[in-house]
């Protein structure tokens, strides 16, 4: 990097032309994804010391299937948050779309048709969120709390408190289908990460999403179709949620209205751990990808260490708060 | 203390924002019981000076004495404690609280656990509003009040806190002539009570009617303090604009072609009304006026950010519909916005991203960004506009204001617009870079583009424009051919003459 | 009085009309709904929500939101229940003190994190929702407080009192009255409205935003703690995995129906009380109408969305304003 180009102008002027750029290593080190990677490495080392299970990649991959559906939705949520919005309703969307799938199946629809119904519902739910946010211009944070209750409530209406099961064998057990040692859901997650990472990283839409999240007003002035893009993101979130809901249905072999309860926390946690900025404009799919594995190791580690699932909530909540504080602090430092 | 001792005496007050000095070494004494006008063009430093007294800004250098004792005015609250109240142009209020509460909330000496005595509060509020002789129901929420009424509440608030120094920043901008009269009565009474009032206004009759002395600012310097009676209007205007114009030469007349943009009876209620004008290819049309005259609103309407409710926009003779900026860009219009920090740059994103933001089709014809094309376009722009930076990957926030502005201009040049609207393109930019901008604007016009140049700097308008439109209070008040344009003619059309009654539609 | 001022007054009247209409319609369909028995059931259902709603209302007025109250309720109920179980010799008020103070402490933490780090309260309290629930599992060792561990006098509070109205009802309406006094007649109460109404102007007017905001979260926590005791009294047990789960949504729905704006600055105790009563009536009416109780949450969600749109419409000056294109 060259030093700044001093400009010999009128003597009264003492304006700097441009600040010196930061050294490369600093730019890299203050990226939150790097922090996530470091934490991941540390967690992996600590875990392998604690239990030999963790040295076994197969074990980690297998354990990951409990979280991978949330991780897949978290990828889309990352993009939503980068655009300056938030969606708290995906877990409820997973439940409702899965219950619709179950109900359609029970009503005699063939599995592919039932799956179509489920995917369509995801589309509609996402568009419904998007309508409130982009057309009525209400804050997404409160709208999606409303729809989170609504969607979960509708799932309850549909399925009551009974589970729906009896799906054919070929549909059940997606987490036991392997490609090599990799379970299919994990493969879906990896593929989705690559696709969405490319979408955000090299397409014009990805670029514009960062611009919207950085300054919505400037984006409007630059002719970016902000509302259309945001609508698209909410729809994508709904669609992905319904896919994730179907994956849970396959993994459990049954659906209930309380499927994916508390998932909103897990998803927001993964995104925040991955270093995405809660106020928009910054973040990456890579960070979320790494954070998902970090969460898998932490959660599995706690289970191996015999910490009750319920008590793990403490750690999850604490992690969420600490990660937002840390991410905010990192960005505040790099902001001039 | 004798009667002639000043209430406030400021010495050597200077203020810089980010390296740019906006106020230089100002000395000023304010007497008890005087109404003192601060005058000057936009950006002359008068508001900055007032805000320093009110604790909004802290001076870079200089001392302030209040009643003979040196004071530090560290915050608006500290100012209030010292008996200084600033009445903002846009009143600050709590829209959901009642008028009475807005009068007292946060008042000095109120105990946090103290009880709110509603009956007494309402009585006191009615008394204060009674003093001002304005019939406002003090129990209704602030939300429902007009701007004028809100302003009255602010003034009542100053009375309630028994301020010694009351600063009014363009208090009459939103008032009707009758309300102005009421305000003046109050100001006179405050003067009789021995309070000091700073009165910031662009309306010379008002200054003449109410102010004992005036202080004129220009480019951050105090030019003169004198009794109002000793100066004529012409004297005042000359001192406000008395800058040598010789810095820039007039641009040679370029070839002016067909009408490119034509606006007819454009109206957005509350902002501007009945605006009509044409801009031809190769022509630079200046749009002058005071801040708040509605110039920016017209630009935003043409560009589709906040469209007008009625009126017609024609491009190359064909009427067009512009609902959002995307439409405008498609029609070959570009807007370099006045508010660079909010509506222009993406602060944390790289310079190259900022430059290519308006041409997605050029950098990503099939949806995927071609980094080499993008980099080449960015580098080309950087070279052409000689933007000074370390790397095109650098966040644009790290550049100086002038170079940020060049990058924004570069963004719009890449879009190859036929019509270019420049809203205060050289605000906050140092003189060396300004000259470069003037050259570029001239070249753009010579290349056949139609340019609408909004500027508060008269020399800039005069040097660049083929024709100068002037707006005042939402209306077009003059269309001055270049040969007849002077700082005086522009100022005379820009300064509101009598209340809301302005000569309208010189160009209609 | 201006048009808009009237609209604001109309909020409470509107909710009252909705409540009356709802009762009338349900009574027409199913006459046995209109009875003192129903009134008794509604009044018993209401205290739990009402107490917590007072806290949530203050939080919303200050332009924040508290999602953690369900977990705080559970935590305080467990903490108080453990005092009752392990130290039956202590007087009842010790348990009350433990419940309310533990709630206040957890609320204080919420307020502190939100104000010190300047983070959105919705995300912070989503975190503490989980954090506090986890803590309560650890505290209780995942064990339920059984009915025979809940002291008899506490259970009786949910049944009767010297004046024949159950104590918990009296407490709940007492809390509502105290909140009304606080918000209407104290300087701090008015400052809460000021902060929510214009957060930027508040410090310029000399209002100490941080302590007031922390106080609001602390009060919300304390009231959720009190609600925990009401829960123990009414249901006679406390279960770490059940008590208070999803409670925050019920309360937010009640408060929003009560005309409290999510944009801060607007909200009244009267409106919130009416909102809680309406919600309580819906809860009671569903089984009487033969509608599955499973509809409850869907209805809450729908109500929140409708209330959002109404609030927006009022603020934007009618439907035209709502759908009009906005400038940047």
Automatic annotation (TrEMBL), chain A:
Membrane topology according to the record: Multi-pass membrane protein
InterPro entries: ABC_transp_permease
Key words of the record: Cell inner membrane, Cell membrane, Membrane, Transmembrane, Transmembrane helix, Transport
TM region positions: 34-54, 66-84, 115-134, 141-159, 179-205, 233-253, 259-279, 286-309, 315-332
Protein localization: Cell membrane
Pfam family, any one: BPD_transp_2
Protein function: Part of the ABC transporter complex LsrABCD involved in autoinducer 2 (AI-2) import. Probably responsible for the translocation of the substrate across the membrane.
Subunit structure: The complex is composed of two ATP-binding proteins (LsrA), two transmembrane proteins (LsrC and LsrD) and a solute-binding protein (LsrB).
Protein name per UniProt: Autoinducer 2 import system permease protein LsrD
TrEMBL record, chain B:
PROSITE patterns cross-referenced by the UniProt entry: ABC_TRANSPORTER_1 (PS00211), ABC_TRANSPORTER_2 (PS50893)
Keyword annotations of the record: ATP-binding, Cell membrane, Membrane, Nucleotide-binding, Repeat, Sugar transport, Translocase, Transport
InterPro entries: AAA+_ATPase, ABC_carbohydrate_import_ATPase, ABC_transporter-like_ATP-bd, ABC_transporter-like_CS, P-loop_NTPase
CDD domains, per database record: ABC_Carb_Monos_I, ABC_Carb_Monos_II
UniProt-listed Pfam families: ABC_tran
Any one Gene Ontology molecular-function term assigned to this protein's record: ATP binding
Boundaries of every ABC transporter domain copy: 8-244, 254-498
Assigned protein family: Belongs to the ABC transporter superfamily.
Protein name: Sugar ABC transporter ATP-binding protein
Organism ancestry: Bacteria, Pseudomonadati, Pseudomonadota, Alphaproteobacteria, Hyphomicrobiales
UniProtKB/TrEMBL annotation, chain C:
This protein's UniProt keywords: Cell inner membrane, Cell membrane, Membrane, Transmembrane, Transmembrane helix, Transport
InterPro entries referenced in this protein's UniProt entry, alphabetically: ABC_transp_permease
Record localization: Cell membrane
PANTHER family for the chain: ABC TRANSPORTER PERMEASE PROTEIN YPHD-RELATED-RELATED, AUTOINDUCER 2 IMPORT SYSTEM PERMEASE PROTEIN LSRC
Protein role: Part of the ABC transporter complex LsrABCD involved in autoinducer 2 (AI-2) import. Probably responsible for the translocation of the substrate across the membrane.
Quaternary structure and interacting proteins, as annotated: The complex is composed of two ATP-binding proteins (LsrA), two transmembrane proteins (LsrC and LsrD) and a solute-binding protein (LsrB).
Protein name: Autoinducer 2 import system permease protein LsrC
Species of origin: Kaistia terrae
Source taxonomy: Bacteria, Pseudomonadati, Pseudomonadota, Alphaproteobacteria, Hyphomicrobiales
């Amino acid at each position: 990097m060259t030093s700044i180009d001093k400009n010999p102008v009128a003597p009264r002027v003492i304006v700097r032309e441009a600040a010196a750029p930061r050294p490369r290593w600093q730019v890299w080190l203050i990226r939150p994804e790097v922090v996530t990677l470091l934490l991941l490495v540390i967690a992996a080392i600590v875990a392998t010391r604690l239990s030999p299970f963790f040295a076994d990649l197969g074990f980690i991959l297998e354990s990951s299937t409990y979280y991978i559906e949330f991780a897949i939705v978290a990828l889309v949520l990352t993009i939503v948050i980068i655009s300056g919005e938030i969606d708290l309703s995906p877990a409820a969307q997973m439940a409702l779309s899965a219950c619709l799938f179950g109900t359609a199946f029970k009503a005699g629809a063939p599995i592919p048709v039932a799956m179509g119904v489920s995917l369509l519902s995801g589309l509609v739910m996402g568009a419904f969120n998007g309508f409130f946010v982009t057309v009525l211009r209400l804050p997404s944070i409160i709208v999606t709390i409303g729809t989170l209750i609504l969607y979960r409530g509708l799932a309850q209406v549909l399925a009551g408190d009974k589970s729906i099961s009896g799906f054919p064998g070929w549909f059940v057990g997606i987490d036991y289908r392997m490609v090599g040692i990799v379970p299919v859901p994990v493969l879906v997650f990896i593929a989705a990460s690559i696709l969405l990472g490319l979408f955000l990283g090299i397409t014009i839409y990805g670029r514009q999403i960062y611009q919207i999240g950085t300054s919505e007003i400037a984006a409007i002035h630059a002719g970016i179709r902000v509302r259309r893009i945001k609508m698209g993101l909410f729809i994508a979130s709904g669609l992905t949620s319904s896919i994730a809901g179907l994956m849970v249905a396959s993994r459990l072999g049954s659906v209930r209205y309380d499927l994916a309860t508390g998932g909103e926390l897990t998803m927001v946690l993964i995104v925040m751990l991955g270093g995405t900025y809660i106020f928009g404009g910054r973040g990456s799919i890579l960070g979320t990808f790494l954070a998902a594995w970090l969460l898998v190791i932490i959660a599995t580690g706690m289970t191996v260490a015999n910490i009750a699932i319920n008590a793990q909530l403490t750690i999850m909540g604490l992690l969420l708060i600490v990660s937002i504080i840390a991410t905010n602090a990192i960005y505040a430092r790099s902001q001039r | 203390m004798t009667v002639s001792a000043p209430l406030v005496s400021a010495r050597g007050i200077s203020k810089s924002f980010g390296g740019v000095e906006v106020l230089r070494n100002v000395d000023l004494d304010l007497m008890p019981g005087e109404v003192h006008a601060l005058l000057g063009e936009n950006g002359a430093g008068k508001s900055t000076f007032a805000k320093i007294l009110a604790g909004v800004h802290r001076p870079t250098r200089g001392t302030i004495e209040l009643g003979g004792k040196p004071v530090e005015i560290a915050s608006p609250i500290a100012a209030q404690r010292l008996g200084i109240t600033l009445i903002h142009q846009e009143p600050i209020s709590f829209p959901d609280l009642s008028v009475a509460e807005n009068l007292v909330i946060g008042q000095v000496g109120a105990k946090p656990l103290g009880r709110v005595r509603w009956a007494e509060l309402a009585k006191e509020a009615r008394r204060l509003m009674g003093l001002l002789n304005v019939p406002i129901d003090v129990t209704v929420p602030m939300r429902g009040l007009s701007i004028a009424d809100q302003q009255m509440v602010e003034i009542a608030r100053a009375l309630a806190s028994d301020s010694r120094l009351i600063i009014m920043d363009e208090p009459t901008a939103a008032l009707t002539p009758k309300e102005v009269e009421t305000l003046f009565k109050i100001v006179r009474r405050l003067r009789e009570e021995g309070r000091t009032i700073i009165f910031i206004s662009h309306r010379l009759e008002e200054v003449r009617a109410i102010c004992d002395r005036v202080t004129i600012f220009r480019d951050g310097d105090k030019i003169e303090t004198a009794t109002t009676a000793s100066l004529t209007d012409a004297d005042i205007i000359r001192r406000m604009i008395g800058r040598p114009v010789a810095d820039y030469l007039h641009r040679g007349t370029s070839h002016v072609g067909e009408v490119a943009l034509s606006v007819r009876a454009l109206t957005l209620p509350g902002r501007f009304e009945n605006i009509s004008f044409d801009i031809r290819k190769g022509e630079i049309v200046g749009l002058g006026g005071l801040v708040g005259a509605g110039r920016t609103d017209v630009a935003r309407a043409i560009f589709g950010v906040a469209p007008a409710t009625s009126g017609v926009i024609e491009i190359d003779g064909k009427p067009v519909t512009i609902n959002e900026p995307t439409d405008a860009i498609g029609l070959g219009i570009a807007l370099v916005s006045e508010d660079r920090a909010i509506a222009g740059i993406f602060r944390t994103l790289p310079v190259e991203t900022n430059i290519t933001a308006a041409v997605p089709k050029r950098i990503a014809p099939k949806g995927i960004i071609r980094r080499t094309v993008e980099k080449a376009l960015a580098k080309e722009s950087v070279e052409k506009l000689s933007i000074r930076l370390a790397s095109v990957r650098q966040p644009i926030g790290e550049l100086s204001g002038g170079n940020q502005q060049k990058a924004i201009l570069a963004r719009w040049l890449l879009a190859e617009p036929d019509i270019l609207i420049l809203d205060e393109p050289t605000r906050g930019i140092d003189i060396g870079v300004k000259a470069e901008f003037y050259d570029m604007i001239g070249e753009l016009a010579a290349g056949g583009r139609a340019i609408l140049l909004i500027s508060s700097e008269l020399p800039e308008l005069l040097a660049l424009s083929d024709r100068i439109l002037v707006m005042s209070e939402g209306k077009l008040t003059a269309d001055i051919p270049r040969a007849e344009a002077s700082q005086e003619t522009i100022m005379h059309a820009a300064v509101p003459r009598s209340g809301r009654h302005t000569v309208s539609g010189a160009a209609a | 009085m201006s048009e808009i001022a009237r609209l604001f007054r109309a909020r409470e009247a509107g909710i009252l009309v909705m409540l009356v209409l709802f009762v009338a319609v349900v009574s027409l369909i199913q006459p046995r709904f209109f009875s003192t028995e129903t009134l008794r059931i509604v009044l018993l259902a209401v205290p739990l929500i009402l107490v917590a709603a007072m806290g949530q209302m203050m939080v919303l007025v200050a332009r924040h939101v508290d999602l953690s109250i369900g977990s705080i309720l559970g935590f305080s109920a467990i903490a108080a229940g453990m005092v009752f179980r392990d130290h039956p010799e202590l007087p009842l008020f010790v348990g009350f003190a433990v419940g309310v103070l533990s709630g206040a402490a957890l609320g204080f933490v919420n307020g502190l994190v939100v104000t010190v780090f300047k983070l959105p309260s919705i995300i912070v309290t989503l975190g503490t929702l989980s954090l506090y629930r986890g803590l309560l599992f650890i505290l209780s060792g995942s064990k339920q407080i059984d009915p025979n561990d809940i002291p008899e006098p506490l259970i009786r509070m949910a049944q009767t009192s010297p004046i024949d109205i159950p104590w918990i009802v009296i407490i709940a309406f007492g809390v509502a009255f105290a909140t009304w006094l606080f918000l209407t007649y104290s300087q701090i109460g008015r400052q809460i409205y000021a902060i929510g109404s214009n957060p930027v102007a508040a410090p310029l007017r000399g209002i100490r935003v941080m302590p007031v905001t922390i106080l609001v979260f602390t009060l919300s926590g304390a009231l959720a703690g009190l609600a925990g005791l009401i829960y123990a009294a009414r249901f006679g047990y406390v279960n770490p995995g059940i008590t208070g789960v999803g409670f925050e949504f019920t309360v937010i729905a009640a408060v929003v129906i009560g005309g409290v704006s999510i944009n801060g600055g607007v909200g009244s105790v009267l409106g919130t009380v009416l909102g809680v009563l309406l919600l309580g009536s819906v809860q009671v009416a569903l089984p009487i109408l033969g509608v599955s109780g499973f509809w409850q949450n869907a209805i809450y969600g729908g109500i929140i969305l409708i209330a959002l749109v109404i609030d927006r419409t009022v603020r934007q000056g009618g439907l035209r304003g709502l759908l009009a294109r906005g400038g940047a």
